[in-house]
């Protein structure tokens, strides 16, 4: 399957290179990725806003919904790309939470850059890495696949942050975005997280109940390893008097910018003081026990627990409405739990792993 993707990608890249008379494989690879994105959008395999993506014959089904909060323009944005890179068994899901005066532009730009850059870097890494033919152990083959994705994600995030800094049309000095994404390739899911959005898996426990498993770390400034890095870089971490419990990142000598996360794209005003855009990249092999994963911005997790989110999604009869129902439940929870605080933008992606709608049956059996 990897070899098939490689030939598809190389064929597209070669045709672009001939047409444009360019010799740069990286440039032609980027154009091939852009062409794939346009083709996916034309075939309705690519979703930029609220709705669903389901391709005939695919095991994937994704539900997406986003709701503007009470702070101005919606700075959340999402992306679902089915048949990612023209591969039937691959899907990319990403959720981006912007902040600062230009945050919505930064989030949309990262949404545009990340999947295409990831495709290019994955193909490049794939072509430079050969699997030892003597490896027979399936576990080692899976680890090898993950290592390729991890390396590709690390290169991608470095490139995306560099491009943002050089972009003269978007002022990201005091603005930025988080980025949480998942690539599913067959039964492998790879999770890359920059910031404080969260991925939660719904899986069946030994007693046949549906339980939540958190797949990511919320990168808040008060986490020991994050705080240590920030303080070593002369940044500061503290809460404001009117926000007890909300730790933020500050410059050494002024109360700015006050970021509530320790990793983000953009925010170059504080990149020298401990903020990084390096993703945590992890993976999981999907089994028949695993049903779906929820990706959501902190507007959900500030008021909804992991298990509540799983229960809400699993009890929604129409899977196409699952993300919308989760967001609406979070909106109601904000009015109850956070009175007097302006509601944040709230966005969610629900990615179902199996084509059969057995989740509601699982939920009702609990």
TrEMBL record:
<protein>
    <recommendedName>
        <fullName>protein-serine/threonine phosphatase</fullName>
        <ecNumber>3.1.3.16</ecNumber>
    </recommendedName>
</protein>
<dbReference type="Pfam" id="PF00481">
    <property type="entry name" value="PP2C"/>
</dbReference>
<feature type="domain" description="PPM-type phosphatase">
    <location>
        <begin position="61"/>
        <end position="353"/>
    </location>
</feature>
<keyword id="KW-0904">Protein phosphatase</keyword>
<dbReference type="InterPro" id="IPR001932">
    <property type="entry name" value="PPM-type_phosphatase-like_dom"/>
</dbReference>
<keyword id="KW-0464">Manganese</keyword>
<comment type="similarity">
    <text>Belongs to the PP2C family.</text>
</comment>
<dbReference type="GO" id="GO:0004722">
    <property type="term" value="F:protein serine/threonine phosphatase activity"/>
</dbReference>
<dbReference type="InterPro" id="IPR015655">
    <property type="entry name" value="PP2C"/>
</dbReference>
<keyword id="KW-0479">Metal-binding</keyword>
<dbReference type="GO" id="GO:0045926">
    <property type="term" value="P:negative regulation of growth"/>
</dbReference>
<keyword id="KW-0460">Magnesium</keyword>
<dbReference type="GO" id="GO:0046872">
    <property type="term" value="F:metal ion binding"/>
</dbReference>
<keyword id="KW-0378">Hydrolase</keyword>
<dbReference type="InterPro" id="IPR036457">
    <property type="entry name" value="PPM-type-like_dom_sf"/>
</dbReference>
<dbReference type="GO" id="GO:0009414">
    <property type="term" value="P:response to water deprivation"/>
</dbReference>
């Amino acid at each position: 399957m990897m070899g098939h993707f490689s030939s598809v990608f190389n064929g597209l890249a070669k045709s672009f290179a001939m047409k444009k008379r360019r010799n740069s494989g990286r440039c032609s690879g980027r154009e091939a990725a852009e062409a794939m994105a346009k083709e996916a959008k034309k075939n309705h395999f690519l979703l930029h806003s609220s709705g669903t993506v389901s391709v005939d014959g695919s095991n994937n089904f994704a539900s997406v919904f986003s709701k503007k909060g009470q702070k101005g323009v919606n700075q959340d944005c999402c992306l679902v790309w089915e048949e990612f890179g023209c591969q039937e068994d691959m899907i990319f899901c990403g959720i981006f939470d912007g902040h600062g005066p230009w945050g919505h532009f930064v989030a949309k730009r990262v949404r545009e850059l990340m999947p295409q850059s990831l495709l290019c870097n994955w193909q490049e890494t794939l072509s430079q890495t050969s699997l030892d033919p003597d490896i027979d152990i399936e576990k080692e083959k899976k680890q090898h696949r993950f290592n390729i994705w991890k390396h590709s994600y690390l290169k991608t995030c470095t490139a995306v942050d560099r491009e943002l800094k050089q972009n003269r049309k978007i002022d990201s000095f005091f603005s930025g975005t988080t980025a949480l994404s998942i690539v599913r390739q067959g039964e492998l899911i790879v999770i890359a997280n920059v910031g404080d959005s969260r991925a939660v898996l719904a899986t069946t426990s030994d007693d046949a109940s549906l339980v939540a498993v958190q797949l990511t770390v919320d990168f808040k400034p008060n986490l020991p390893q994050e705080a240590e890095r920030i303080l070593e870089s002369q940044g500061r971490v503290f809460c404001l008097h009117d926000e007890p419990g909300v730790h933020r990142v500050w410059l050494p000598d002024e109360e700015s910018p006050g970021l509530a996360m320790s990793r983000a794209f953009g925010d170059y005003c504080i990149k020298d003081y401990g903020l990084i855009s390096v993703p945590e990249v992890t993976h999981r092999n999907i089994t028949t026990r695993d049903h779906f994963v929820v990706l959501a911005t902190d507007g959900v997790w500030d008021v909804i627990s992991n298990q509540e989110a799983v229960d809400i999604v699993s009890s929604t009869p129409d899977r196409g409405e699952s993300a919308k129902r989760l967001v609406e439940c979070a909106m109601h929870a904000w009015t109850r739990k956070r009175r007097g605080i302006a509601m944040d933008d709230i966005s969610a992606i629900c990615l179902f792993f199996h084509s059969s709608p057995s989740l509601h049956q699982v939920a009702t059996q609990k």
